[in-house]
Amino acid sequence: MKPTEGKPNRLHNEKSPYLLQHAYNPVDWYAWSDEAFAKAKSENKPIFLSIGYSTCH
Predict the structure, then answer these.
(1) Is the pLDDT of residue 55 over 80?
(2) For labelling, which of 7, 9, 43, 45 has a CA lying 20 to 30 Å from the CA of 33?
């Protein structure tokens, strides 16, 4: 699948190049936000945190 195929997730409006790389992942990612924590709390689910950055070699 090409990176821009399919339906974008919540990251498609972010400014971070790293987050934008994952805007078309088949995962309903949330950026670090109060909304993400409120949803996890309301559903009694843990936070799955992905940490990374984009780089060019």
Answers:
(1) no
(2) 7
What's phi and psi for 14, nearest 5 deg?
-75, 165
**pLDDT exceeds 90 at position 53:** no
Taking the C-alpha atoms of residue 46 and residue 22, their distance in angstroms, rounded to an integer, is: 20
Q: What residues contact 34, with CB distance under 8 A and at least 6 apart? A: none
Q: Is the C-alpha dihedral spanning 51, 18, 20, 16 positive or negative?
A: positive
Greater model confidence, 3 or 25 = 25
Nearest to 17 by CA among 56, 57, 53, 51: 53
